[in-house]
UniProtKB/TrEMBL annotation:
Organism domain of life: Bacteria
Methyltransferase keyword on record: yes
CDD domains from the UniProt entry: AdoMet_MTases
Protein name per its UniProtKB record: Predicted nicotinamide N-methyase
GO MF annotation terms: protein-lysine N-methyltransferase activity
Pfam families: PrmA
InterPro entries attached to this UniProt entry: Ribosomal_L11_MeTrfase_PrmA, SAM-dependent_MTases_sf
Signal sequence coordinates: none
GO CC annotation: ribosome
Keyword entries, A-Z: Methyltransferase, Ribonucleoprotein, Ribosomal protein, Transferase
UniProt record, GO biological process: methylation
């Protein structure tokens, strides 16, 4: 992802427990309709959130992507809301779940089971809170599923998982293996630089907000893709 975030110094900060992270999110983020998805409530960052206080929980020192609206997830969520049969009565994996918005929409549209795969420990707390705020249940795993065999699901929903070349090099073989195992794959992306377009087939396009272009108020025309037949 191309957005940059200013890091505030927080000397002497200590890692918080999962319960403490949940409390922090509730007390410091705003629960409001998701950008581009007014049907869904999400705990969302604002200028006074003080998210730097959660950095001690992040072993990779990555920005808090889960607290912002990224186009890839919004694209898939919008597509599912318009075509709920994609997930109805099916098992879904929300890959790189972030805020959990895609999995939440899948559950609201009738998915029988949703697993949100997310390695950011702060994000896993946010996913649970966001699911509760929307009246659904989403299972959360912090396992690096990219290093595992294809999961026992019917559809994989992957929003914004090609935001860097190293990650793309891991994600594409995983998704290809999943498709060969009979799992449907949907990818949402505003055509970021590392998206392997040659291996994909466009299904739909939407104009959605994208924090990756610097503001949640700016729209990006992005696509929902599946793997091409020879991908």
């Amino acid at each position: 992802m191309s957005g940059e975030h200013r890091r505030e110094d927080s000397p002497g900060s200590r890692a918080l427990s999962g319960a403490d992270v949940r409390t922090f999110i509730v007390e410091n983020l705003q629960l409001k309709p998701a950008s581009g998805l007014p049907e869904i409530l999400l705990y969302t960052a604002h200028p006074g959130s003080g998210l730097s206080r959660l950095r001690a929980n992040d072993t990779e020192d990555s920005p808090p992507y889960w607290a912002y609206a990224w186009a890839g997830g919004t694209l898939i969520a919008r597509h599912i809301l318009e075509h709920p049969d994609i997930v109805r009565d099916r098992r879904a994996l929300d890959l790189g779940a972030g805020s959990g918005v895609v999995g939440i929409v899948a559950r609201k549209c009738g998915a029988s089971r949703v697993i949100a795969a997310e390695i950011d420990r702060n994000a896993t707390s946010a996913i649970g809170l966001n699911a509760e705020a929307n009246g659904v249940t989403v299972e959360v795993t912090s396992t690096d599923v990219l290093s595992r065999a294809p999961p026992e699901v019917d559809v994989i929903l992957a929003g914004d998982v090609f935001y860097s070349a190293p990650l793309a090099a891991r994600v594409l073989p995983f998704l290809t293996a999943c498709r060969k195992a009979g799992i449907e794959v949907l990818i949402g992306d505003p055509r970021r630089r590392s998206l392997p377009l040659a291996a994909l087939m466009l299904i739909a396009e939407y104009a959605v907000p994208d924090f990756g272009v610097g503001s949640t108020d700016q729209a990006a025309i992005g696509g929902v893709f599946t793997l091409a037949a020879d991908g």
